[in-house]
Amino acid sequence: MRLTILGGGGFRVPLVYRALAGSEVSGVTLYDTDPGRIAVIRSVLGQLPAGPPVRVAGDLDEAVRGADFVFSAMRVGGTAGRVRDEAVPLAEGVLGQETVGAGGILYGLRTIPVALRVAERVAALAPGAWVINFTNPAGMVTQAMASVLGPRVIGICDSPVGLVRRAARAAGADPDTVAYDYVGLNHLGWLRSLRDAAGRELLPGLLADSVALGSFEEGRLFGAEWLRALGSLPNEYLHYYYFRRETLAAVRAAGETRGAFLERQQGEFFDRAAREPDRAHALWEATRRGREETYLAESRAASGGWQRDSCDLDGGGYDQVALALMRAIAQDRGTRLILNVRNGATVPALDPEAIIETVCEVGADGARPLPSAALGPAELGLMLQLKAVETAAVEAALFKDREAALRALALHPLVDSPAVAARILERAAERP
């Protein structure tokens, strides 16, 4: 299998490469528009245990031509773009996170045109390739790319698998043998069933056990009382929706946004690693650890303040999902994974072409969403509203349609006024 990584100078590329050790991948091609970053990341890869040979492509066409799998992990506009995406909404008094709220919409508007060009070049030069998309906001970017690639683009995220594994451990089950029902959109989903290898339903008992709920991240984020009221375990990003007032206050009190922290942290890493290439891996590992320790720091502060568990700091996640997805397709394994795919009939209230995040069975023909229990009105209502937002954002990005962009922002549950949405658009259009 030949793998191409777009965004090859991205900080988390070593996680993917590390996961490939001993895999069927015969070669890795990296492509990035920033030659300095890709040089540093190549130094890091060279200091990891032996993996597949690596080469750097000079342009996009060279990168995708002949690939079997294309892993898209781009950050259009770099970390500076993220800083702006988060700062502009905050100046208007609403949350601006990389993938959630107005910040996610601004990021999508900038990213979707680039993602579409990638999809078009893959279709032209590697029509048999599978595109695995991790480029954020993953749901709407996958939606846009699917208009060109159809089912040959599949979105991935590490949040759902992390939730399943943490919940299984808290319920006393083996995370590798549990069955589960999860459905939603990217960064907006719910775990509604968790069964052990014997088929016993574990979720009601877990929800009833306050001590067990307090033993893992989502239990601490949302609190036992609210989880019992919901009757399910939400994806961690739903904290922005369910506790918007508390999270906004924590973000304002933090002193700097997550994007500003990452720009500073990663900037220091890339500068230092370029000067000290022999220490690139050690510097990367220390920076990665700091990144993981501060993940969702504002939400943790808003829910009482607590440190992440050591088992959640290893950095594995989306890289393992990507490798499992590639293997399932290449070897026709029939593997079950939570992925971003076309809805089909899974959620009848949504268009069959809409991208959702749910449990799929994966084989040589790609990912097929499995039947799911009906959504409750609260979950379905939020999904429908957010899918309307995503659809408008894709339309705005494709056709440079300001009215669609305004609709995307104003309809988002975390933006409380069309006037605020209009000002966010105006601020975002100004030069930095």
UniProtKB/TrEMBL annotation:
Binds 1 NAD(+) per subunit. GO terms for molecular function: hydrolase activity, hydrolyzing O-glycosyl compounds; metal ion binding; oxidoreductase activity, acting on the CH-OH group of donors, NAD or NADP as acceptor. Residues 182-415 form the Glycosyl hydrolase family 4 C-terminal domain. Substrate binds at R82, N136. Keywords: Cobalt, Glycosidase, Hydrolase, Iron, Manganese, Metal-binding, NAD, Nickel. PANTHER family: 6-PHOSPHO-BETA-GLUCOSIDASE, 6-PHOSPHO-BETA-GLUCOSIDASE-RELATED. Belongs to the glycosyl hydrolase 4 family. This is 6-phospho-beta-glucosidase. The lineage of its organism: Bacteria, Bacillati, Actinomycetota, Actinomycetes, Kitasatosporales.
